[in-house]
Write a structure and sequence with these properties.
With 337 residues, this protein is an alpha/beta fold. It has 14 helices and 12 strands. The radius of gyration is 24 Å and the shape is elongated. 34% of the residues are buried.
Length: 337
């Protein structure tokens, strides 16, 4: 096992100097010497001890990522390709920042609170929580927190939200469908909270600008759970077939519905066009490939970690809420009318 002493001997410096470079306390060390020590660390494949880092910095060196989405009847949160992709990009960005990531998926709120305290996270990234749940988390965890896609009142210091321009995404896909001649369109979602609400508001604005009436009748709410949701599609099959297009608030639900409706004899896109939101891997691999709103998950994750890193350095993050922009990706699931 490579020791700090071994690196110091090879670099011709004291063990204290090497330790300061490893623990980012090298303010009095020249940049040239820092570069030399870091090169030797890489060459010798030195792996720092987490416990030693905790003692040296009075911190854990760990950033928590807490996922608050409940389990669906069909899958766990991490089986959702959007959640899995976001977590993968978060892990990469956290590692680049020089921290370790610990993932907490929601079994109970009390477990998340206990683990956050027990592991002494230096900071936390959280998404999928209700306002009540987040308030409980904030009261128990007083270090910097970045939320993702959490559109509720945040009355606490050292809290920042990173989001997507969901309103504009809903507006863009609405305009896209209108420009391809669609007028009988349903917006389909399994809730009216947060991002889904903003996507509906953007879509509704596009429909209003086109002069369409009875806009509230263009929104269809379906159950959260898998089997009740499919039963609802069967119950409303006549209504769905009277439309020319469906816009789903997520790609996951869009692909699921496409498969189900095709099994019921619906021709997609010849009879019914389908669009989604997120641009998950399923959107590119299903048939027909799904027209969707692309949100850059990699940029969102990097932005969340950047904001957390700024707060960890003591910087203020006041100002407009940072958001990533979106754009429509046209594929074969939508045809012109």
């Amino acid at each position: 096992m490579v020791r700090i002493k071994d690196i110091a001997e090879r670099a011709g410096v004291s063990a204290t100097t090497v330790s300061n470079v490893i623990h980012h306390k090298a303010g009095k060390v020249s940049p040239e010497l820092v570069e030399k020590i870091e090169r030797i660390i890489r060459e010798m494949n030195y792996v720092p001890s987490l416990s030693a880092r905790m003692l040296a910095n009075e911190s854990s060196g760990i950033l928590g990522v807490a996922v608050g989405y409940p389990e669906r009847s069909l899958h766990l949160p991490l089986e959702d390709p959007f959640v899995a992709s976001l977590i993968g990009h978060l892990e990469h960005a956290i590692r680049e920042l020089g921290y370790y990531m610990m993932l907490l998926t929601k079994r109970s709120m009390e477990e998340i609170l206990q683990e956050s305290r027990a592991w002494n996270f230096d900071g936390l990234i959280a998404f999928g929580f209700s306002q009540e749940e987040f308030e409980a988390l904030r009261e128990a965890f007083d270090k910097p927190i970045v939320t993702i896609d959490s559109y509720f009142d945040r009355r606490y210091p050292r809290v920042c939200n990173v989001g997507t321009d969901d309103f504009d995404g809903g507006y863009q896909i609405g305009r896209f469908l209108l420009n391809r001649g669609h007028r009988d369109i349903l917006f389909v979602a399994d809730n009216d909270l947060g991002v889904d609400h903003l996507r509906w508001e953007g879509f509704r604005k596009a429909m209003a600008e086109a002069g369409l009436e009875h806009l509230d009748d263009m929104r269809l709410m379906v159950p959260w759970d898998y089997e009740p949701r499919l039963r609802r599609y069967d119950e409303l099959l006549g209504l769905l077939r009277r439309q020319t297009a469906l816009f789903f608030c997520s790609d996951y639900n869009a692909v699921e519905a496409m498969n189900h409706l095709r099994r019921r004899g619906v021709d997609i896109p010849g009879e019914l066009s389908v669009a989604g939101f997120d641009d998950i891997v399923y959107a590119r691999t299903c048939w027909p490939p799904l027209t969707t709103v692309h949100q850059p998950v990699d940029k969102k994750a990097a932005l969340a970690v950047e904001m957390l890193g700024r707060m960890l350095r003591g910087e203020r993050v006041d100002g407009p809420e940072p958001k990533v922009s979106v754009h429509v990706v046209e594929r074969q699931s939508v045809c012109a009318r």
